[in-house]
Design a protein that fits this description.
The chain is mainly α. The protein folds into 2 domains: 43 residues; 57 residues, Arc Repressor Mutant, subunit A. The protein contains 5 helices and 3 strands; from the N terminus they run ααβααββα. A 3-stranded antiparallel sheet has the order 1-3-2. The longest helix has 31 residues.
Length: 100
Amino acid sequence: MTNPKNAVVSNPDALAILNEMQATLRELLKLQQANRADNVRGGFSEFMPLKDAAEFLGIKSSTLYKYLSEGKLKRYKKGERVFLKRTELEAWSGLNAKMI
């Protein structure tokens, strides 16, 4: 009887899949750590840049700019950068689900 660990390692396809998954997980961890570091440095732990906010809402950036100019959403600035509050986006998207 073979050891299950050895069986997986001896299968080249399974090994390739595991290596790819491991690399993907490492990339995701790096992104998460970088995001946390950016949030801590910028003091915007619950704030999103415009591009991320548009993606979060499932709309184009141009539509988000329109909503901001119409005063439908509140913007926050840090220097030249504009952010939106995640909790406000969640609440707004729930109230306006039919609109977006």
